[in-house]
Fold this protein.
Amino acid sequence: MSTLPQQTIDEVRSIFQAFLKKRNKRQTPERLAVLEEIYQTEDHIDADELYVRLKQDDAEVSRATVYNTLELLLECDLVVRHQFGKNQAKYERAYSYWQHDHLICMDCNELFEFCDPRLQSIQEMVADIYEFDIKHHSLNMYGHCIRDNCPNRADADDEAPPDASTAREAATDGV
């Protein structure tokens, strides 16, 4: 469930309705349902997951409407699309949402969000140097989480080479 205040939801709805009106697009209940569902979730969601959630809520919406509405929401900057590796594109709300970056575990596909103000400083410095007006950025870091509860960690451990200290100990045992 969303932690966004109702005022923010109302603002987002108004922005989207104005965008649709300007583009001479119909303001259908289905399009608004897609918008509201994506703003009710705090995680990253793909179009198919969004479609399933809407159907579970008895929304009369087609897959095509979900995909087409997501494209409209991208155009009006209410949604951001992420492509994490070879996985299906994921979407997240973009209005009144803090800039953040992502760590993605290549074993369990867990996604971790983080924010570091130093990245904002680097972005501003690069923009000044290249005289560039940066609207947003995306930083995704891929690796292997070392959490004990990573569901695929045991498989990764089996393939991992021994660290240098273990290799040195093994080499000196025979001397």
